[in-house]
Amino acid sequence: MSAQKEAWLVGTIKDCKTGNYNPEQKSIKIFDGDREVDFINEGFGAFYAKNMEMKAYSVQYENIFGQTVVKNVNLTEGNNFIDFCLDYFVEPDITTFVSSVNKSDPLKISFKGVSATNVNEQNAVFYYKGNDLWADFRNESGSFSKKIKPEIFKKLMISEKKATAAVVLKDESSDYKNVYTFELGNKKKQIINCYIDDWNFYGDLFITIFGELK
């Protein structure tokens, strides 16, 4: 009688943009339909489940923005090596301040890095010049200005959605946080993010527009 064929799921959860792993990733779950599957969590983002059937499963984990991500995988015979991205973002269907800029109302954003001993502030203004959207930045390095291309505009909206989602993350052990204030016409909103490795709204916005952080 031939041996029954088996599949192994050998997974890593990491920031796929930087290659960094999260040593404290404990939110991993594997499901076979509604049934949770046992697996070995080796720590530092590595895990494996052995002696599985060759079929579809779903893997659930928390990304760096505090969202629950669910990825479906189809296992074949033998070892299935799969990377799951901590920086994968589940884009919510919400209206952003960036998308609401119009010819009458420029968008003002202040970025504050706040610690127990220091407050570092930068500012940006998004506004229309004719039919083109522009962005002006001012930080300790100087003033920068650039026209926003349509493909960049979409990325900027997603950046704001990431900052909004990350509000759910709390870190009582750290005295550092990022505070972002949006002002558009008579609307004003403040977003507070705890420190996130390899991502923050200000840096993401600046690099998206200018290609580098100055």
- In round numbers, the mean pLDDT is 91
Strand content: over 45%
Nearest-angstrom radius of gyration? 21 Å
The strand order across the widest sheet is 12-11-10-9-13-14
The total domain count is 2
Summarize the structure.
With 214 residues, the chain is mainly beta. Helices cover 12% and strands 45% of the residues.
Q: Keywords, please?
A:
214 residues; mainly beta; 2 domains; 2 helices
Characterize the structure shown:
The chain is mainly β and 214 residues long. The chain folds into 2 domains: 7-88, no CATH class; 97-212, no CATH class. The chain is built from 2 helices and 14 strands. The protein has helices spanning 150-165, 201-210; strands at residues 7-14, 29-32, 35-37, 40-43, 46-52, 56-62, 68-74, 78-85, 107-114, 119-129, 132-139, 142-147, 177-184, 187-194. It has a 6-stranded antiparallel β-sheet, with helices on one face. A hairpin with a 2-residue loop joins strand 13 and strand 14 (187-194). The longest helix is centred in the C-terminal third of the chain and has 16 residues, at 150-165. The chain starts with 6 loop residues before the first strand and ends with a helix. The model has no long low-confidence stretch (mean pLDDT 91).
